[in-house]
């Protein structure tokens, strides 16, 4: 079930909130602590105002809520609200058996017993959940994984607490994967917001329409992307609609990963079939692969890992994705020479790709030694970024691979005297129209955008994951 948390100050606003999200949710949580005191007094009416099961909650400040009342008043507010037909009431771990339990029983309201940890995942989480389950109908843990190791602990809850009705929610950025794959933790529900504001939170719309999180079952094949950061990745928008279009019971989830070795343990635990790899793990991942392609070996980095019988295989689809948009121009001889700006991980794959297709390459970089390293491996020339202008009019293609312009309006080669004959290609896709491309466009250059490369590398990845071509009917919103 997908449960929408309502954080409005009036019941009418809460109802509107539910209406706006209706098609994506199965349940709602009414938070008394967000309501004004007048509205709180009428909260018993709320279940009759919506036609979904409602969880009643009155969260204290110390548990991340907004209720500033005394404990006696807080419980009184819960008690009077329980005159309404709520499906569940949330009672915290430390609240001893009291009139709340009695009233819940008499009204047929199920009790969720909850523990909260904003600083980590308690070592004794399984024991505590077991104890909570004896004191209510459902045991709940809202905890904060601080790394992939904690994520593993949460996913293990499924087998450690088999048969226990539970809700587990991983807060913060490391919690995202657990919020999507809640069923794989054995969690009865996942919480959603209308718009994801807190780190790691997801919107009800994305949980339902992008991930189809509520349809995950034991047979669902799990794929994902590992990176740090990873929340900006658009790959879920490529793969999830693709899986759906070919009617493949599979899901693609972002995993924030601080420890690649630990992630491979999780990948085994979840029986993952494959995953994409992004910055900064593209090189480190090589140590854990049993088989790599010639391209991975020569480029020295891997962006795609697929499960093979008894081992993980690494492939690189970045170089291919980069080439697709310019393939015709290489083929017909329009591109014979290229300037590659930058000497980071992406540059490595691009220089290799261009050299492999017979293009003469010069690498320009701020730090000359980084450029030299890639140039020596690929047998090409290199120069200091400050000499960029001297290459004007001498190259057919200019590729921008640095991080300059990522989310800003800057170019690594400001005032570059484009002649207008160059093809300008930026691998940044946020923003799509970077300063580098704007400058090139102003001089009449042909442009290629980062989202073209992103989509093409994703399509090849999809083939590696599924054995099917990426469906033509799908046009990812990237
Ligand atoms: P990626 O793996 O995505 O290519 P990276 O490895 O961090 O990213 O590479 C970043 C590239 O952007 C490098 O070429 C870097 O130049 P240095 O090798 O000199 O560090 C380049 N870069 C980052 N900030 C830059 C800036 N302000 N001006 C010029 N180049 C910059």
Helix content: 25-40%
**Radius of gyration, CA atoms, in whole angstroms:** 27 Å
> What strand order characterises the main sheet?
7-6-5-4-3-2-1-8
Instruction: Report the biggest beta sheet as strand number plus sense, adding barrel if it closes.
Output: 8 strands, parallel
Description:
By secondary structure, the chain is of the alpha/beta class. It is built from 18 helices and 20 strands. Helices cover 34% and strands 20% of the residues. The strands form three sheets. The chain has an eight-stranded parallel β-sheet with strand order 7-6-5-4-3-2-1-8. Helix 7 runs parallel beside helix 11. The model has no long low-confidence stretch (mean pLDDT 97). The protein binds 2'-monophosphoadenosine-5'-diphosphate (ATR). 2'-monophosphoadenosine-5'-diphosphate (ATR) binds next to helix 15.
Name some characteristics of this structure.
single chain, 478 residues, alpha/beta, 6-stranded mixed β-sheet, 20 strands, 34% helix, elongated, binds 2'-monophosphoadenosine-5'-diphosphate
Summarize the structure.
This protein is an alpha/beta fold and 478 residues long.
Helices, strands, pairings?
Layout: E1 2-6, H1 11-21, E2 27-31, H2 37-41, H3 46-49, E3 54-57, H4 71-81, E4 88-92, H5 99-107, E5 110-116, H6 125-134, E6 138-143, H7 148-160, E7 166-170, H8 176-180, E8 190-192, H9 204-210, E9 221-227, H10 235-245, E10 250-256, H11 260-269, E11 274-277, E12 291-292, H12 294-299, E13 304-308, E14 311-315, H13 318-323, H14 327-331, E15 337-341, H15 345-356, E16 360-365, H16 368-378, E17 381-384, E18 397-400, E19 423-426, H17 435-442, E20 446-448, H18 450-466
Parallel strand pairs: 1-2, 1-8, 2-3, 3-4, 4-5, 5-6, 6-7, 9-10, 9-11, 12-14, 15-16, 15-18, 16-17, 18-19, 19-20
Antiparallel strand pairs: 11-13, 13-14
Helix pairs in contact: 7-11, 10-18
The site of 2'-monophosphoadenosine-5'-diphosphate has 17 residues, from helix 15.
């Amino acid at each position: 079930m997908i449960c929408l948390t309502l954080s409005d100050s009036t019941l009418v606003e809460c109802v509107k909130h539910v209406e706006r999200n209706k098609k994506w949710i199965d349940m709602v949580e009414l938070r008394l602590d967000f309501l004004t005191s007048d509205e709180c007094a009428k909260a018993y009416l709320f279940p009759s105002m919506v036609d979904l099961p409602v969880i009643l909650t009155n969260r204290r400040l110390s548990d991340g809520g907004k209720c500033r009342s005394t404990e006696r008043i807080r419980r009184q507010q819960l008690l009077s609200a329980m005159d309404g037909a709520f499906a569940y009431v949330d009672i915290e771990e430390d609240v001893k058996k009291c009139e709340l339990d009695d009233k819940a029983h008499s009204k047929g309201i199920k009790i969720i017993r909850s523990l909260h940890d904003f600083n980590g995942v308690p070592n004794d989480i399984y024991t505590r959940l077991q104890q909570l389950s004896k004191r209510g109908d459902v045991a709940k843990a809202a905890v904060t994984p601080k790394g992939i190791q904690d994520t593993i602990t949460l996913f293990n809850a499924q087998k450690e607490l088999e048969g226990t009705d539970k809700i587990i929610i991983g807060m913060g950025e490391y919690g995202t994967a657990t919020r999507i794959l809640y069923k794989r933790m054995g969690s009865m529900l996942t919480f959603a917001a209308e718009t994801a504001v807190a780190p790691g939170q997801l919107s009800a719309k994305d949980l339902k329409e992008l991930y189809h999180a509520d349809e995950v079952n034991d047979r669902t094949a799990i794929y994902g992307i590992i990176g740090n950061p990873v929340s900006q990745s658009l790959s879920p928008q490529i793969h999830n609609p693709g899986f759906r279009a070919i009617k493949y019971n599979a899901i693609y989830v972002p995993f924030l990963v601080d420890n690649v070795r630990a992630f491979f343990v999780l990948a085994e635990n979840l029986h993952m079939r494959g995953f994409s790899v992004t910055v900064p793990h593209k090189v480190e991942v090589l140590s854990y692969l049993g088989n790599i392609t010639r391209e991975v070996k020569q480029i020295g980095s891997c962006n795609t890992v697929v499960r093979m019988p008894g081992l993980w295989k690494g492939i690189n689809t970045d170089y291919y994705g980069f080439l697709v948009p310019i393939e015709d121009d290489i083929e017909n001889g329009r591109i014979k020479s290229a300037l590659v700006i930058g000497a980071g991980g992406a540059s490595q794959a691009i220089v290799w790709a261009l050299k492999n297709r017979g293009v003469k390459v010069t690498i320009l970089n701020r730090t000359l030694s980084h450029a030299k390293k890639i140039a020596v491996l690929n047998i090409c020339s290199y120069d200091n970024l400050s000499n960029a202008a001297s290459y004007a009019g001498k190259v057919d293609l200019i590729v921008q691979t640095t991080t300059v312009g990522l989310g800003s309006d800057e170019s690594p080669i400001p005032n570059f005297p484009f002649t207008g004959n160059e093809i300008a290609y930026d691998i940044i896709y946020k923003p799509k129209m970077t300063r580098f491309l704007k400058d090139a466009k102003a001089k009449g250059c042909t442009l290629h955008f980062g989202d073209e490369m992103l989509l093409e590398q994703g399509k090849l990845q999809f083939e590696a994951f599924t054995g099917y071509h990426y469906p033509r009917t799908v046009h990812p919103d990237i």
